[in-house]
Amino acid sequence: MTAKKIAPSILAADFANLAADIERVAADADLLHVDCMDGHYVPNLTIGPPVVKALRKHTDLHLDCHLMVTNPQVLLRDFADAGADGCTIHVELGDPRPLLERIHNLGMRAGLTLEPETPFSAVEPYLGDIDVLLVMSVRTGFGGQPFIASVLDKVRAARRAMSERGLSFEISIDGGIKIENARLAAEAGVDILVSGTGIFAQPDPAAAVRQMRTTAWG
Ligand code: DX5
Ligand code: ZN
């Protein structure tokens, strides 16, 4: 059984004080979720390899980069060189196999993700090629949106496929995760809870991480 993890999404941190905000959750978080948006795949522009490189000097936490970009192939080497530990790409871009292989060849963990409206069947052929399946529970682009509970069916389907096919990858969920719905996601079979505003918009982000963990998994 995989260890259960909480991944604060730094999209909701203070971009002018990223190192300080990360320090606040460092003792309690298992990894950091880094939302990289290019202004094309989504109508928002955030973090790229230079910021990952700068963060790398301030934290030993696993930096998991969620690439909401149209053209990941031109950026993967830069993310690896910057010190990213993992890169997750969107299945909506087309056959992900060459990119997943490239991510592995660059020494990173490979993740595959799907938008809320994309059916589970879209990722099914690639489950043997990934380390993490990231189930989006909001449409990508912005933090602070409401959780879409119907995507939990995809978490259950992934859990089933994993045991039926003897696969092992982690199941992560991203978008609208708060202390209030952490248990629901955990019960559906989620291993990694990604949360932005549910952690960094709270008065005590570290306490929010701890409370989310105990609420989800006891
Ligand atoms: C949305 C991002 C999410 C976002 C989650 O495009 O991929 O990772 O940071 O933020 P919250 O937890 O506030 O919904
Ligand atoms: Zn994300």
Summarize the structure.
By secondary structure, this protein is of the alpha/beta class. Helices cover 33% and strands 20% of the residues.
Helix content: 25-40%
Poorly predicted ranges (pLDDT <50, ≥5 residues)?
none
CATH architecture: Alpha-Beta Barrel
Bound molecules: D-xylitol-5-phosphate, zinc ion
**Helix and strand succession?**
EHEHEHEHEEHEHEHH
Task: Write the topology of this structure.
Layout: E1 5-8, H1 18-25, E2 31-37, H2 49-56, E3 62-68, H3 76-82, E4 86-90, H4 97-105, E5 109-114, E6 132-136, H5 152-165, E7 170-174, H6 179-188, E8 192-195, H7 197-200, H8 205-217
Parallel strand pairs: 1-8, 2-3, 3-4, 4-5, 5-6, 6-7, 7-8
Residues 9, 33, 35, 66, 174, 194 line the site of zinc ion.
Describe the structure.
There is one protein chain. The chain is an alpha/beta fold and 218 residues long. The chain has one domain (5-217): TIM Barrel (Alpha-Beta Barrel), CATH 3.20.20. Helices cover 33% and strands 20% of the residues. It has 8 helices and 8 strands. The protein has an 8-stranded parallel β-sheet with strand order 1-8-7-6-5-4-3-2. Helix 2 (49-56) runs parallel beside helix 3 and helix 6 runs parallel beside helix 8. It is globular, with a radius of gyration of 16 Å. It starts with a strand and ends with a helix. The model has no long low-confidence stretch (mean pLDDT 98). The site of D-xylitol-5-phosphate has 22 residues, from strand 2, strand 8 and helix 7.
